[in-house]
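Sat 14:20. Reprocessing the chain from the morning session after the first attempt stalled halfway. Input below, unchanged.
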Amino acid sequence: MNKINKMISILIVFVVVVLLTYIITNSIMSSDVNSQVGGPQIELLDLNESPFTVHFNEKPTVLLFFTSWCPYCNEDAPKMVELYEKYKEEVNVYGINLIYQDDIVDVKKYIEEHQIQYPILLDKTGEHYKNYGDFGFPVLHFIDQEGNTIDSIIGATEIEFIEESFKFLIENS
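Finished this time. Tokens:
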């Protein structure tokens, strides 16, 4: 009986060691991937055409795809400035200009005219616009910290409706 108990004890220790090794190895591998990749992200260009990375894992994120000549984008711009000021501590907001359909001089005038303080990025080819579904513009995508779109608004709308989506994003991230 003593030999059987000893064998069971050795077997239990072996299983525990194997499980701990597996858990530790996976944990190290996961942290290496996250440190290399930085979590969910997209790469765009800033207004100086320098690379800029949007890291979704920092905070919940709102992406606003727009053009400077779009009347609906111009209608919603003051609303987004107001909501950015109200929620900037809780949510990252990025304006993404579809520069392949716009002119950089006009984009800079648009930013100045509307006194936009959130980062404006450039989608030179429309790749990101297409990845999020090129439905029209303006289009807002509300993205959680895992990089999942949890809400979208297409076209101009009332500020109260946009703010509800901001609140929903905060509550569900």
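Helices lie at 2-37, 71-87, 104-114, 127-131, 159-171.
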